[in-house]
């Protein structure tokens, strides 16, 4: 029987983009299973920052955290955004009555008293944010050691026996106010998610200027160690152009892994889950797991950059 032009032959299926994608994903899954991951034994503190809104800070925070847990790390996410999106995605309580990071910053409540365990894993912890944090930006202005509140609280937490953490990841709001300054002062490393869209680099020089200012006056160890390209749509030339441009400026900081734009990634928070728990075999979850392996293996804390 003669085959019509519309009927795909079996060979055309195996050559199709979707088949190539499936083959690529399963090869990457296998590579992840055999990837060598050695934790340093030290606590690495990251702040995920970009004053541009909606670039994937929170998504990156919670998914990198869960991906790090999946390779054996114990991780604390500090939700420093009054929107509380990281707390939602990690499935922890953060209603107005919850004792939260607000109480740590303003009322000197110990961090240990507010840390909750995510239902996803006993090694995935979260210091939740509540709506009260919206007022903290102003309340902090008149406080003693207002830039060091979070740093002090974290130091006290880590000094308690049994509280060892491999990673602390702080989710910042999209602004450069006192909350973000507290995160910069508490962290060693800055992770910048960059959305592969128009105006991706807008505001980046201001962010780098702020990091330099903090380095000089408040925290000499702070450095931009990691840039992660997110919401990458391989079908558009623009995404490729943005990725190339970012790589040409920040060759050492940009991770090889790129996070694709993926429906599974955007759906997961509405189930109070990270994409690692929601659909661990999806393209987005695999990319975040690859990024986590890279982060562990390219530890820049001691080198500086
Ligand atoms: P804000 O500045 O408001 O804190 P943000 O930088 O934390 O925002 P997110 O909340 O992480 O950004 O992401 C913004 C939106 O983009 C969300 O709706 C999120 O679900 C979606 N998103 C993030 N990453 C991806 C992705 N890889 N694929 C699809 N959607 C994504
Ligand atoms: Mg956010």
How is this structure best described in words?
This protein has a single domain (36-304), classed as 3-Layer(aba) Sandwich (Rossmann fold), CATH 3.40.50. The chain has 14 helices and 8 strands. The chain has helices spanning 10-14, 17-33, 57-70, 85-89, 101-107, 111-114, 133-139, 149-159, 178-186, 204-217, 237-249, 263-267, 275-278, 283-297; strands at 44-48, 75-79, 116-117, 124-127, 167-171, 189-195, 223-232, 254-260. Strands 3-4-2-5-1-6-7-8 form an 8-stranded mixed β-sheet, with helices on both faces. The longest helix has 17 residues, at 17-33. The protein is globular. Bound molecules: adenosine-5'-triphosphate and magnesium ion (MG). The site of magnesium ion has 4 residues, from helix 3.
Gyration radius, in Å = 20 Å
Mean pLDDT: 92
- What is the SS-derived class? alpha/beta
State the assembly state of the protein chains. Answer: single chain
Highest CATH level, the class:
Alpha Beta
Bound molecules: adenosine-5'-triphosphate, magnesium ion
What CATH architecture do you see?
3-Layer(aba) Sandwich
Which blocks of ≥5 consecutive residues have pLDDT under 50? 1-6
- Give, in order, the helices and strands: HHEHEHHHEEHHEHEHEHEHHH
State the fourth-level CATH superfamily.
P-loop containing nucleotide triphosphate hydrolases
Main beta sheet strand tally, sense and closure: 8 strands, mixed
Shape descriptor reads: globular
Number of strands: 8
Look up the CATH topology.
Rossmann fold
Query: What fraction strand?
Result: 5-15%
Overall domain count? 1
Strand order of the largest sheet: 3-4-2-5-1-6-7-8
Helix content: 40-55%
Euclidean distance between termini CA atoms: 66 Å
User: What is the number of helices?
Assistant: 14
